[in-house]
Design a protein that fits this description.
Elements (H helix, E strand, L loop, with lengths): L2 E4 L8 H4 L2 E10 L5 E12 L9 E5 L6 H8 L12 E5 L23 H16 L6 E5 L1 H12 L6 E5 L7 H15 L16 H15 L2 H5 L11 H13 L4 H12 L11 H5 L5 E4 L10 H8 L6 E2 L16 H16 L1
Parallel strand pairs: 4-5, 4-6, 6-7, 7-8, 8-9
Antiparallel strand pairs: 1-2, 2-3, 3-5
Helix pairs in contact: 3-4, 5-6, 5-9, 6-8
Length: 350
Amino acid sequence: MSETTMQADGGYYTAENHGPFERHGLGALELEEGGVIPDCQLAYTTFGELSPAKDNAILMLTWYSGTHGILAQTYIGEGHALDPSRYFIVVVDQIGSGLSTSPHHGAGPAFPRVRIGDDVRAQQRFLRERFGIEELQLVLGGSMGGQQTYEWAVRFPDQVRRAAPLAATARVPDMNAIYVDALCDALTADPAFAGGDYGSSEAMAAGLARHARLIAILGYSTEFWAQECWRALEFESAGAFLEGFVIPYFAPMDPNDLLCQAWKWQHADVGRSAGGDLAAALGRIRAKTFVMPIDEDLFFPLEDCRREQAMVPGSELRVLNSISGHLALFGLEPEFVAQIDRNLGELLAS
């Protein structure tokens, strides 16, 4: 299998923009929807040293539109629960992220359908092939990273000692799935989309801006807007916040990559591995699990998370407080990150 240090991939998806990373080649990855990725490359980065017994490994997973860079900057380091002086922390970028194998690497709109389960199977192979890791002290991630966390705990219950899904559900709620349809429509309805053969992200500026505005509607809480929390980021109006912060974040991204991730998000359901029985699937989890919803989250509401948590044996519900809602995951509030650190510290000590 190949191992390559990547410094650039052209355009937005570079080490300069996201931090240094490597890629591990898995060869052919057969997909649950029947397709195949002939040469699946997983982008990843690591922090700390793997112990001789290989018993200090933590796996952290990325969310929609996100990569390892923002996770590393926000949640990993001295003073955090994810301390590289104690743990070997592996952050893997999901398929379709723009760094791991993604539509923009050549297949474009012909890229096959990928499920969360495909990501997790690929990650499990990667950890075994690259590092010889057979057991993880902790698997965690926020949003789509949380969806992958649930899949890991269900699919490989003997390999996951602890799990921390943040701001995520194991089966996507119906309202959430309908919302993702609207996100995708914002991109595909742009006349420049041309069936996915748009040529560049710049050509899709209008569609990407509509997509960003939709993210902002439910990504931030109603109180975030009502209390004008964007003023803390030195914007003079909600419109200026959208134009100066939210839209520029998405503007350089590849639409086909976003659509690949969105389809996975929309179809996440660990119950598929138990004939559609969500309770049976979650009942397989052996990991000590802290389910951590955000109290003001409109993407993955607290009550949806609470219902699922009750199905996970021995789990605990640890509610995170943030007026920002779902996008608090980006870590702009120090106290929000501190809440996560406290919970992870307790979980790792258990």
